Amino acid sequence: MVDLSDITDETSVTRLRVDSDITIEEMARIISRLLNNIVLGLDRILNKALKTYGLLIAPWLINVAKVYFAIGYYPRLKRSIIMVVLWKEGKADYLILESYRPITLENTLSKILEKVIADRIVDTAKEHALLL
Fold first, then answer.
1. pLDDT tens sequence across 14-63
2. Quick check: helix, strand or coil at residue 6?
3. Which of 27, 102, 122, 123 is deepest in the core (most CB within 10 A)?
């Protein structure tokens, strides 16, 4: 049995500010790390095109990310995915689940924005020693 006597009804809530000052260099770095030869996402934008025009679209993406930070909400709009299941070549028995691998097709711009947000949350968590 677990002793919960030290837990009170009062919950302490600490709000942390996540730094939303994103540089063009940071956005360009995230875009440059996208893989080239992958299946198109739901928005049908090639990663290669994003990499080619990354410096032109980086300011726009930064503004979108800043709005997400300002409102404290990441809209579910455009966060849809499609899961495709592919069989692995050379498997003896395709009746076994391990003979297949799922891939997800996501909105490419959402992936970039989610990466920016996730990086900022991790940085804040490390700064406040919230990660082990």
1. 777 777 788 999 999 999 999 887 777 778 888 898 999 988 999 999 99
2. coil
3. 27
